């Protein structure tokens, strides 16, 4: 819900991460010669430099540089409206949860927790590792990052339940459509068009555990919940006067350049559109790796270059083979694989298991399978995996080298009780119910699959981790820079319900 070889690396790296843009100071000296697109040349090339350049050429890796030219700009009217919506608790049924409560730009586009806390938070305005639940954890999956979600073109959520596919229309023409939980697997949802991120935005608000809570008791299905939210923001229908302050009509008219009435303009279709545009505008791709591909051979350290060589080299040739599943501009092939990351938490069935993709597409190969996440900014999106079982990239890499030992180590440390989020929780053992047996079931299936672990030694594992850190955008880790994706103190607050973060990460932000 607020859901073979080392090539799979990251296939369950549950969080996607933020990135960092590095801004150069503008020069005001017009007499200086213009800088050309050149970088300092490495005076002495090592064997690693030469080998990595061969790989870049052979695999045409420069062609994988992300293209964001067709994506929205955060300063455009619709993304600005979407940002205001994203940070407003008015979208939460009980007016206690905003989308940003679990997907905050200063938390890597997610929440920094293994398992998210939605409507049952002790303090709604505390986010990140200091957010506590008033009763028990009731959401089974780790919060994915919103960073670079606009680059996704196949599916979203851990199980891919919002998915784009090709079908044939009445005229025999092939068209792209999207299926959602409302329409069912491989059935086009006619309400969402071809907007993948907008389609995703329609579902968290309907979840009792994530955003809805116990509000709207007369809402009988997902669409009815959405209509209640639209009426609340539009100040019409059954939700008239439900907000003490309501200036949303002014905001929608400005963003859509329209003079239409609230009933016409403020529908959930327009809300989802704006939310999707905002999330698609959060592009953070200026990493050392991209700088290297653009010609700056000094952009990465020698360790990162050794890690890149392992990443893009097949296991049979002495590498890690990560590129098999984590190739392309997003470092993901958008497939679904069982990598046997530890199972813990409430799960999705009576045995506390989470079978992942199998619940959407019940082919046996989908048992315990989850979507291969993007590795862009992965350094910033811990904890990792569908349940947030691994808190460091080192633990993730170790899992791909030896899944059985990694799972054993997870439970030797206490399973859920060994994680930062739950180590001081006296009821943490409830999250371990059936966890070890479910993890062993997933491992048994993995051992029957074509998965091949890469025999990396400790130094190689360290190099691989260093390369993953070279996928981090400079702006994403800079709170001052990433705040351009948050409402500023001068941004109009249409309902006085904006998420006012008191604490995030490890203190005041």
Notes on the protein architecture:
With 509 residues, the chain is mostly helical. Helices cover 27% and strands 4% of the residues. Strands 1-2-3 form a three-stranded antiparallel beta sheet. The protein has a two-stranded antiparallel ribbon with strand order 4-5. Strand 2 and strand 3 form a beta hairpin. The protein is globular and about 65 Å long. The N terminus and C terminus are likely disordered.
The overall pLDDT, averaged over residues, is: 91
Multimeric state of these chains? single chain
Alpha carbon gyration radius: 23 Å
Which structural class best describes the helix and strand composition? mainly alpha
Shape: globular
The tally of helices reads: 15
**Total DSSP E strands:** 5
Helical residue percent band: 25-40%
Provide the succession of SSEs: HHEEEHHHHHHHHEEHHHHH
The largest pleated sheet is described as: 3 strands, antiparallel
Concise summary:
This protein has helices at residues 47-58, 77-86, 196-200, 208-212, 222-234, 248-256, 262-265, 268-281, 288-293, 302-312, 393-401, 403-412, 435-447, 458-469, 479-482, and strands at 155-156, 162-168, 174-179, 336-337, 370-371. It is mainly alpha-helical and 509 residues long.
Features:
disordered C terminus, 4% strand, three-stranded antiparallel β-sheet, mainly alpha, single chain, 509 residues
Task: Break the fold down into its secondary structure elements and pairings.
Blueprint: H1 47-58, H2 77-86, E1 155-156, E2 162-168, E3 174-179, H3 196-200, H4 208-212, H5 222-234, H6 248-256, H7 262-265, H8 268-281, H9 288-293, H10 302-312, E4 336-337, E5 370-371, H11 393-401, H12 403-412, H13 435-447, H14 458-469, H15 479-482
Antiparallel strand pairs: 1-2, 2-3, 4-5
Helix pairs in contact: 1-10, 2-6, 2-8, 10-14, 11-12, 11-14, 12-13
């Amino acid at each position: 819900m607020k859901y073979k070889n080392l090539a799979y690396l990251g296939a369950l790296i549950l969080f996607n991460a933020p990135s960092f843009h590095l801004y150069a100071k503008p020069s005001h000296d017009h007499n200086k010669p213009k800088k050309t697109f050149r970088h300092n040349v490495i005076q002495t090339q090592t064997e690693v430099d030469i080998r990595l350049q061969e790989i870049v050429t052979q695999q045409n890796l420069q062609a994988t540089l992300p293209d964001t030219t067709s994506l929205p700009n955060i300063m455009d009217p619709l993304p600005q409206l979407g940002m205001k919506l994203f940070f407003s608790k008015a979208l939460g049924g009980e007016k206690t949860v905003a989308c940003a409560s679990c997907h905050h730009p200063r938390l890597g586009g997610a929440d920094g927790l293994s398992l998210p806390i939605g409507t049952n938070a002790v303090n709604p305005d505390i986010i990140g590792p200091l957010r506590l639940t008033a009763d028990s954890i009731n959401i089974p999956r780790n919060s994915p990052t919103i960073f670079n979600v606009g680059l996704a073109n196949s599916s979203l959520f851990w199980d891919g339940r919002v998915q784009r596919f090709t079908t044939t229309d009445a005229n025999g023409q092939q068209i792209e459509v999207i299926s959602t939980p409302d329409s069912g697997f491989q059935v086009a949802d006619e309400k969402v068009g071809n907007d993948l991120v907008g389609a995703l935005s329609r579902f968290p608000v309907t979840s009792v555990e994530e955003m809805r809570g116990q509000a709207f008791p007369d809402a009988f299905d997902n669409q009815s919940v959405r209509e209640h939210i639209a009426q609340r923001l539009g100040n019409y229908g059954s939700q008239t006067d439900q907000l003490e302050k309501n200036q949303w009509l002014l905001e929608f008219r400005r963003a859509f350049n329209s003079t239409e009435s609230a009933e016409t303009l403020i529908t959930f279709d327009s809300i989802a559109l704006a939310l999707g545009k905002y999330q698609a505008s959060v592009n953070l791709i200026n990493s050392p790796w991209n700088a290297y591909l653009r010609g700056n051979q000094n952009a990465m350290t020698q360790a990162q270059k050794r890690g890149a060589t392992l990443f893009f080299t097949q296991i049979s040739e002495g590498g890690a083979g990560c590129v098999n599943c984590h190739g392309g501009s997003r470092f993901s092939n958008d497939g679904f694989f069982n990598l046997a990351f530890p199972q813990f938490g409430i799960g999705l069935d009576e045995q506390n298991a989470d079978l992942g993709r199998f619940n959407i597409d019940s082919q046996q190969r989908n048992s315990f399978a989850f979507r291969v996440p993007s590795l862009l900014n992965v350094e910033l999106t811990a904890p990792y995996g569908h349940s947030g079982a691994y808190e460091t990239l080192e633990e993730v890499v170790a899992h791909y080298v030896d899944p059985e030992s990694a799972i054993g180590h997870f439970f030797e440390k206490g399973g859920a009780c060994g994680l930062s989020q739950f180590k001081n929780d006296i009821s943490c053992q409830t999250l371990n119910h059936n966890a070890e047996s479910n993890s062993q079931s997933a491992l048994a299936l993995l051992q029957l699959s074509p998965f091949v672990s890469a025999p990396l030694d400790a130094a190689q594992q360290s190099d691989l981790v260093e390369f993953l850190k070279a996928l981090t955008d400079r702006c994403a880790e800079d709170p001052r820079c990433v705040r351009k994706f948050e409402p500023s103190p001068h941004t109009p607050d249409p309902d006085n319900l904006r998420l006012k973060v008191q604490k995030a990460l490890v203190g005041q932000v």
